[in-house]
Amino acid sequence: MILIIMRHGEAVEYKEPDHTRVLTEFGKRQCEGVGKWLQENLLALTSGSTCSVSNVDLALVSPYIRAQQSFRAVAKHIDVAREVTIDTVTPYGNAAQSADLIHAYACDENAPKCMLIVTHMPLVSLLADRICPEFNAKYFDTADALMIDYSSETGIGEQLVLYQGS
């Protein structure tokens, strides 16, 4: 399975409640850039992996407004068969639980060939490190997306590419 872990685009400054923060205009353009990049490159980037794909079968998206907006901007440019809004991938979600959820989807009899996660720091970095140990907890800037060739047998993946959206 191809797994894409993405941080939302640039959002307005922190305010209470955090879940209501929206993307800036720059953040919207960043996320559209991710969608265009996926549209143009997904098939080519995955052709040498265990699973060649040209669209996203499943997107797991944080319920926070900035993540929802980020997903919609990406989805303008690439087909996404199914979207699930899920509390597990909020900023302070548990990386182990999130990895278990991804693994459950990957092992299902109707497993997606390509899954997109739209989430936040610090979870995005912790999750990437857990699933792709060679990534080594690098910081994700806004609209960065890590593409991983994920093994449902091991629950671990290999980094294919890191798209930097800034």
Structure notes:
This protein is α/β, with parallel strands linked by helices. The protein has one domain: Phosphoglycerate mutase-like (Rossmann fold), CATH 3.40.50.1240. It is built from four helices and six strands, in the order E-H-E-H-E-H-E-H-E-E. A six-stranded mixed sheet has the order 3-2-4-1-5-6, with helices on both faces. Strand 2, helix 2 and strand 3 form a beta-alpha-beta unit. Helix 1 (25-46) crosses helix 2 and helix 3 crosses helix 4. The longest helix is centred in the first third of the chain and has 22 residues, at 25-46. The model has no long low-confidence stretch (mean pLDDT 94).
Q: Which architecture name does CATH use?
A: 3-Layer(aba) Sandwich
Regions with pLDDT < 50 over 5+ consecutive residues?
A: none
Question: What is the percent of helical residues?
Answer: 25-40%
**Given the C-alpha coordinates, what overall shape results?**
globular
Keywords:
166 residues, alpha/beta, Rossmann fold, six-stranded mixed beta sheet, globular
Topology overview:
Elements lengths: L1 E6 L17 H22 L9 E6 L3 H11 L4 E6 L9 H13 L6 E6 L3 H9 L13 E6 L6 E7 L3
Parallel strand pairs: 1-4, 2-3, 2-4
Antiparallel strand pairs: 1-5, 5-6
Helix pairs in contact: 1-2, 3-4
